[in-house]
Amino acid sequence: MTIENRKWILKERPMGLVKDSDFELVTEVLPKINEGEILLENLYLSFDPTQRGWLNDVPGYLPPVQIGEVIRSGGIGKVIDSNNPEYKTGDLTFGLIGWQTHCLTKPNADDRFRVVPDLLPIPTMLNVMGSTGITAYYGLIELGKPKSGETVLVSGAAGATGSVVVQIAKLKGCNVIGIAGGKEKCDWLKDIGVDDVIDYKNSDVHKELPKVVENGIDIYFDNVGGKILETVLELININARVLLCGGISSGYDATRPADGPNNLFSLIIKRATMQGFLVLDYLPKSEKALEEIATWVMEGKLQHREDIQTGIENCPQTLNRLFTGENKGKQLLKI
Ligand SMILES: NC(=O)c1ccc[n+]([C@@H]2O[C@H](COP(=O)([O-])OP(=O)(O)OC[C@H]3O[C@@H](n4cnc5c(N)ncnc54)[C@H](OP(=O)(O)O)[C@@H]3O)[C@@H](O)[C@H]2O)c1
Fold first, then answer.
1. Tell me: the pLDDT tens digits for 233-256?
2. What is the pLDDT of residues 260-280, one digit of tens each?
3. β-bridge partners, 79
4. Which of 88, 175, 262, 264 is most buried, by the most CB atoms less than 10 A from its CB?
5. Are 24 and 8 in contact (CB under 8 A)?
6. Cβ distance 146 to 176 under 8 Å?
7. Beta carbons of 318 and 20 less than 8 angstroms apart
8. Domain 4-127+305-334: which topology?
9. CATH for 131-281?
10. Whose CA is nearest to atom 18 of ligand 1?
11. Phi-psi category of 177—alpha, beta or left, where left has phi over 0 and alpha has psi -120 to 50?
12. Domain-by-domain residue ranges, the chain?
């Protein structure tokens, strides 16, 4: 039986939001699988802001996608053929499956292809029960060490990662403030228990933030970087923890260098720490996080929402939704 794979390859490096013409959707006939290989029928793709950075020709924690290569992305596929004893037909497998309908690969210890339990809906497995939940859990709990009564501020608060962070912070007894774009997202944050919200698209964060953080900020979980980070540094408390998860407001789209805050001196005055982290370091020890997250989800204490686009031909537009803020929850695409 011949299997045709439709895949998006990189044609030229994008500037700003991506265009269909930066890529090419090509069809190839897949060869028979060799020893050690598996063939996946890709079911859902995960869209993450970091994917946009992988399209730039700059060194990062993974090499840039090269011209002619399939666009790298995480996702879940079903094993439809296996020549590898660790995977059997029918297994649902998570890995960097790429913007394509099928993924023929020889998994090795480094590339983290792993079989996932067929217990929860796949969108949930790619959201709170996947690297999104793990990022939020370890970033906030292990690095932020929230204490009851502390004030936690989260930017990108209505997004996939941010919305898990704000809820875990509430579960830990913190006063939680979220910054997000637009009324719908801010209303949703209130619905899931956030104490105060700031709509950065319709108000001036520099003016509004001091009004809602009268007691200062103990933990800042930063998803956006740029000017908001600079404003926050003026308002941190002694021993504050500033957690750099992402900087989507600057630098991902190759149009200009990332903005940096010009008031880092505030960290000295406030004896504060600022720490970047990558979820990749926490994936091998994610069991504890996933157990606790699963319990919160089952008890109805942790809400999650997924934004599911459909069709392999819609990959480029789906990536852009993360940068226009159109995504309502974890951005996925069902193939
Ligand atoms: N360190 C790690 O290991 C790690 C792992 C996962 C994610 N991250 C980072 O975490 C952040 C959130 O990722 P996610 O996957 O959960 O995506 P997400 O928050 O679900 O989606 C991205 C959101 O970013 C906001 N945004 C876009 N452009 C913006 C801008 N110029 N200024 C402010 N906000 C902007 C939009 O929300 P609004 O509508 O509110 O503007 C958009 O919905 C990203 O920075 C990502 O790189 C880091």
1. 999 999 999 999 999 998 788 777
2. 899 999 999 999 999 999 999
3. 40
4. 175
5. yes
6. no
7. no
8. Quinone Oxidoreductase; Chain A, domain 1 (3.90.180)
9. 3.40.50.720
10. 159
11. beta
12. 4-127+305-334, 131-281
